[in-house]
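Weekly modeling sync, notes
Attendees: S.R. (lead), two postdocs, one rotation student

Agenda item 3: backlog of single-chain predictions. S.R. asked that every request posted to the team notebook include the full sequence so nobody has to chase files. The rotation student volunteered to paste the first one in as an example of the format we agreed on. Action items at the bottom.

Example entry:
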Amino acid sequence: MKTKLYILFFLCLSLSSIINAQSFVFFDDSPNNTYYETSWGFASNGSTLELINSSKFPVDAAIKYSGLNCLRLRWKSNNGGDWGIATAGANWAARNLSDMDSIVFYAYTGSQLSSNDLPVMFVEDINNNKSPKQVISSFVASINVNTWTKIKIPLSIFKQNLGSVDITNIKTIYFAQNPANGDGVEHTLYIDELKTTKGFDLPPASPVNVTANGYYKHVDISWDLNSESNIGGYRVYKLISGSYQMIGTANSSDRFYIDFIGAADVQASYKVSAINTTLTESPLSSEVFATTHQMNDDEWLDMLQEANFRFFWDYAHPVSGLTRERYGSGDNVTSGGSGFGVMAIIVGINRNFITRQQGSERILKIVNFLKNKAQRFHGVWPHWLDGETGAVIPFSQYDNGGDLVESCFMLQGLLTARQYFNQNNTTENSIRSVITQLWEETEFDWYRRTTTSNFLYWHWSPNYAWQINMALQGPNETQICYLLGIASPTHSIPASLYRNGWASSSHYVNNKTFYGYKLYVGWDYGGPLFFAHYSFLGFDPRDKKDSYANYFVNNKNIALIHNAYCAANPNNFTGYNASTWGLTASDDPTGYRVHEPVNDNGTITPTAALASFPYTPEKSMDALKSFYNNYGSKIWGIYGFTDAFNVKLNWYADSYLAIDQGPIIAMVENYRSGLLWNNFMSNPEIQPMLNAIGFVPDTTTSVQDEINIIKDFEIVGNYPNPFNPSTTIVFTIPNKGKVKIEVFDMLGNKINTLLDGYANAGKNEIMWNGTNTNGYKTSSGVYLYRVLYNNTILSKKMLMVK
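Predicted structure, as returned to the notebook:
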């Protein structure tokens, strides 16, 4: 059942391709800080050219005009020699330059370089035809030392002498040796923001409503997006040593910038400018100030939720209001992630990030699009659809129709909204009416496939019918489908399918313990943590149980197992500890992968720990602060934490995914106020569904809020450490009480129970002789010991060396 997540495709469209119809990008940033992949260069007959990997354009991250890096052109021209180097846009794509009027770029040199020292330039089409070389010195008076200079070359000099080049299919722009200058001297020129443009060179208006807000170690700078059609981006300036210096840039669609200062109690001043597609800059905005400061836990959560909210509000598709699959995915929106987005908007209203009127208008826009334009298949939306037209975007060859699971994530959000927007006005009345129609038109009985089937099925295609043939069987993230299917007022499925279908697998019931935590249902170690999140953004698992488990207890234990696994760190992955934990499906250095304790490559995904706030609030708060304080600007951006990171491989994602951002803001809110749980559960169809399945109240086994750490209960340590063969564990408790001490190996297997009884107030010691319960000697290695007192668990590592 995990197959669907394992094959999730990237749809990350390059942000370094077309800005809009008025500009084509040939270089703005290289993902690789060593060389630019879409480039090719050569040198011959005594001339030299710096190249990486024998043919690639070097890039430089230390000297750059904006963004991550720039191109470093370093050459020496000898008489009779030659050199040249080409740079192309993303994927070597051909561009129609027939209506472009200029090549523009920024240039920088650290030593004197006259215009006559500059290379020549030419263009090359998709068939490798090259235009005659053009001397560009006539268009560049000089390049100042240690200053970025804007250079603008009219394309007319190439168009007037194209030779055999097809100007409608230009692939590369070349820099090459000037035949008239073979001085044999090494020169270096840094190049950034290489584009072709058209249009007047008039500056845009200065950004307005610029604000700056300080947090613990960073400042958010924001502004209103400019209304001009040819905006190419924004530049952010900071007051440094008495003058304003540019510190970074933002894309044309982004109205935020993060200045990660790295310390509290620092005041900073900022201004912002806009640039158009010809790289012409507006005057600077008015000045704004902010100070970083210490924050309490509520402020930390406000910061986290507001940043996540921006992804669903600012980065939503402008036509439909639905949520884009990921940052950079253009018109591709996701039905499940949009359901999470509906919940995010409700949270945004509740936290005063937007007004109720703003939120209700956006929700009405969404539901009307879902009703009137979005393609459906027996009432079920596809996984991906076009945010402008509503047409299905195939997830894979056979997955081009209805996706029941993603649609149930959408319905979970919509039913929450139906209860939240309860005011008697035109907008909210319409919201409730449309959601009810969409809910009642969802044909769960169709996705049962036959009248005798015990299962719901994930996919149906008008072209391929049931060819994927994926029955929904737990344990995994699809539980919500059976809950909604049984609850449906119009196309319901029998409640018997919950037991005979959803919970019918031989591995549904587990009842084993891992690191001392009992797993009632689920894969060993609990599986990826999204299993504990997706079906529970609206469905409240507290204070109830079915025949198998109290799912709040079970989900809490899954999160605790993940935390204990990362603390034990059996694979010795760099960065893992009790405060840096959480494995789930996400981007990673190899692409996209489902991470869990039994399938771990060292990748931590922030949503795993942060969406677990209702289950493990203290451990999740530790993770929030650890991610922020230890990795800072590497993973904190305008939409909160980026998708994942792998310290061992020095890899930090720059991506944001809807299905990972959404559970954070939703589950943090459920922890703080129960807002989404309360509204979803108040739908009139929910309690009859629970009764039909056999859920019963379970207040006696409801897990307490995460155990509060008692200040004077602590593990002092163990001595000696390392040890052979014995060590003494020392701990203190404030009052006499029951204590349990257990020892685990690094795979989570329990080795021994050292104490399961009462201990006196104050300092206590207990010795472990290095054996397990079967009496034979253990081997050298790291072990974890855990002390449980008064519903509080503390743990430490110890090392046996023989």
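Discussion: group reviewed the output briefly. Residues 551-568 form the longest helix (18 residues).
Action items: rotation student to repeat for the remaining queue; S.R. to check formatting next week.
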